[in-house]
Amino acid sequence: PPDPILGVSEAFRADTSPKKINLGVGAYRDDNNKPYVLSCVKQAEQRIASANNDKEYLGITGLPAYNALAAQLAYGEDSLALSQARVVTSQSLSRTGALPIGGEFLSRWYTGNGGKKIYLPAPSELFKRKKHVAFFDVAYQGFASGSPAKDAFAVRLFVADGHNILLAQSFAKNLGLYDERVGLFSIVVADKDEAKRVDSQIKILVRPMYSNPPLSGPRIVKEAPRSETNGRPHNHNAFRIKKPPGKDVRIQERLVPYHLPDWHVLFHGLSPEKVDRLKNEFSVYLTRDGRISIAGITSGNVKYLAEAIHEVTK
């Protein structure tokens, strides 16, 4: 069967309707629904192209400077765990690639709780009491509040509370690097000596998976913040989420009459049957669980979309 998310775009491309709308895969778009590349990414690519870089293999765990930047973005520049060298990092193929690294590591070294479902009224306290290990999946850092630091609150809280966590990161969303597959797997451990042992085990896991990761994406991530600071050393505020110029204002004006919130992704509660009607009757494509990527809404199609949703829900 088609992939529940990527299959939406495949069906959209096959549709010949001039009114078709793709609300499936979340990706930056301008108000003409064209792919939008961030200016800091364009500038970073220009500097990289003129730097006469080589094409040598990276090490198994990736580009060290990129790993350090990504870890600081997640754990904080003042992280005690980082300063004590207790964070083991490995560049990954986006967060999709980071998750199996963590999964393989846990399958070998952590017995778990037998797969029991648990309710978490106070997660950090409960994890500590039950001796659980937390594995954070951070795909949208910067999207919730606009601030990467604020969005990393839960990760930093757990580390500050003494947890040895696992973390999967991605720069596909907050820098729009969808095709670069650039991410990071990291794990916080007890001390520097344990970090060396864990680093060795991570390399053993990664080597047969893909040997070593690609280099172009990490170079962009490393250079992009400099584009926001006129070449000065990186500033994590450069990862604040910024919408394509003018689009947010125009869309907001059109959204208000239809009471559609200005979010990156919206779960609206439409049934799978209503989603199918949107596709079959109006050429509006979204996942069957009702997930809408707001990036696919423009000032030119929002009225048609609102009318289509109204028609299938009345």
From TrEMBL:
Residues 217-238 are annotated as: Disordered. Residues 19-124, 125-309 form the Aminotransferase class I/classII large domain. This is Aspartate aminotransferase, mitochondrial. Its cofactor is pyridoxal 5'-phosphate. Homodimer. Keywords: Aminotransferase, Pyridoxal phosphate, Transferase. Pfam families: Aminotran_1_2 (PF00155). GO terms for cellular component: mitochondrion. InterPro entries: Aminotransferase_I/II_large, Asp_trans, PyrdxlP-dep_Trfase, PyrdxlP-dep_Trfase_major, PyrdxlP-dep_Trfase_small. One of its GO terms (molecular function) is L-aspartate:2-oxoglutarate aminotransferase activity. Belongs to the class-I pyridoxal-phosphate-dependent aminotransferase family. SUPFAM superfamilies: PLP-dependent transferases. The keyword Transferase applies. Residues 220-231 have a biased composition (Basic and acidic residues).
